[in-house]
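Posting for a labmate who doesn't have an account.
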Amino acid sequence: MFVRTRKPILAFVLIAIVTISLISRSPGLKIVDQQGDILVQVIRLDKVLLKYTHSAMKTPVEDIYTFDQEEMKLVHSKSVHKSLGAGFEFKSGDLGELTTENGRFILKGINKPFEVLTFRYGETADQKIIIKDSDEKKTINLSEHVAPGEQVKIKPTYIWRFPLERRVNSE
């Protein structure tokens, strides 16, 4: 008799696990290193800022991405530069609108989607990733996680929320 009751209990447990998994998945980001190890997982976000120092001009740059949860993409929406130096390729109308504000050059309306944002960490650039939502802001200093020259990927993906106790997890 005991053997007969185990199968329905096992089926119930499996159905419960699958249901909880599906309900607990949320759109988010995983930031991974070149080995595929997860550096940070984030749910509930609005924007991602990639801050770095321009390698030639040695001036600050901010690339701003919005998170499109429906398409599961990061959309490069704006870029802010202290100077228009080497590597800044811009033709009026090609990438958006170039304006100046408070001594900074702002390229708005870029609207370039990325399924995965991939770059290499540079010691001179000293990249930082800033995750923003309406309630909080989290800064990830990549120098604490990867060595110069290592590849970093920011991937929009569904994240199982159940093991995440906080909205931003940077183990």
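Reply:
Got it, the structure tokens are right above this. The CA atoms of residues 28 and 78 lie 20 Å apart.
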